[in-house]
Amino acid sequence: xxxxxxxxxxxxxxxxxxxxxxxxxxxxxxxxxxxxxxxxxxxxxxxxxxxxxxxxxxxxxxxxxxxxxxxxxxxxxxxxxxxxxxxxxxxxxxxxxxxxxxxxxxxxxxxxxxxxxxxxxxxxxxxxxxxxxxxxxxxxxxxxxxxxxxxxxxxxxxxxxxxxxxxxxxxxxxxxxxxxxxxxxxxxxxxxxxxxxxxxxxxxxxxxxxxxxxxxxxxxxxxxxxxxxxxxxxxxxxxxxxxxxxxxxxxxxxxxxxxxxxxxxxxxxxxxxxxxxxxxxxxxxxxxxxxxxxxxxxxxxxxxxxxxxxxxxxxxxxxxxxxxxxxxxxxxxxxxxxxxxxxxxxxxxxxxxxxxxxxxxxxxxxxxxxxxxxxxxxxxxxxxxxxxxxxxxxxxxxxxxxxxxxxxxxxxxxxxxxxxxxxxxxxxxxxxxxxxxxxxxxxxxxxxxxxxxxxxxxxxxxxxxxxxxxxxxxxxxxxxxxxxxxxxxx
Length: 490
Description:
Blueprint: H1 3-42, H2 45-78, H3 81-115, H4 122-151, E1 156-159, E2 162-165, H5 168-172, H6 175-206, H7 211-246, H8 248-255, E3 266-271, E4 283-287, H9 290-296, H10 306-317, H11 341-368, H12 379-387, H13 389-404, E5 409-411, E6 423-424, H14 425-428, H15 434-465, H16 478-488
Antiparallel strand pairs: 1-2, 3-4, 5-6
């Protein structure tokens, strides 16, 4: 493999791995703050136990997310320095806001929350929980604003061969970002909800202590999961309409739509090799005219196919890469404007499918626990524990589709934007040797694997320990009790 391919693998591995932690942190932080709010308002012990238990798991996951997230920003200087030089005037602003504003607030109030038990007034301590959780959402907002600019560059002029930002407000209110943010946050709540349903369902099925804690947690997770899926469907529709306008090749690739159709059918599933541009050997099961509706809210809109779009892209952006030695073996070669069709086609369906399965498990869990019932079937814990993975897989599939669907561009041309503000992925990579990239790829993958083992070990330890693992022991005398309470505070 060449430097470009290795660099893409490294970025893909580190990004997908990091994003396993991010949605759980975002969603769980809000739910934990809500649990603590309920405890402060009612004084019920079960809500305190819920806050303590789920808060401990939140902290483990957040710590791993910080460690893996730091690597992400270094990627731009390691393997993608040409990209950083091209977009640095724009891309650096939202990343700086994320680090200096959102993450700083996030870390500060998390520290106060961790060490503030029994030291801060209840309501002040609760405010710290909410400040932390809202800062995680702000952090996601700035990151998504940066990513959305790559998908749809706005708020810039083109000077001296690179984009120069002339409106930070345009970057932060990019319609691509405003559609991506609620969709991503809903995905985060879906992950947290499935986590609650899976862990609480397992404890509930075991019929151990603190059944009120597990029942409340499971039902909270079930309702949040159902609501999150509804939001995902609505915001996903909005994103699809923007994709039709801004990245028509990604839309065609999501359907493996090789030829232009009017009206265009939505493919439920395909049998055969969708990677071929002529699609002669592919049989699809379609819903007539549905793709036209998803693209433009009517059943007659024309949706362009891959073959037609390739011709348009060649006319606008050239047929061959520049004859530049920095491009390696791609120098002077024809540009392949078609993304990896199997990845985009099946990734799009995996995203939807796993999201629907996750919501379905939540609905089933709510039904089985209605009116005080406790599930007894042996398949129940296997179902809910396995269901934890489904929104993680759906989120990952969605991001892989989003990023690979814009290839061969790392900065996608804005159809109504400024000429020249786009960049091929092949032009973005650093001038490194394959040995150098192999070294960092192997080292980071090894470290991430070790971190994964640590996280699984800690999560398993605290999940199996239940409430008893995070609550202080029964009080002895007043002095000892105070010391124990402080010692067991986070």
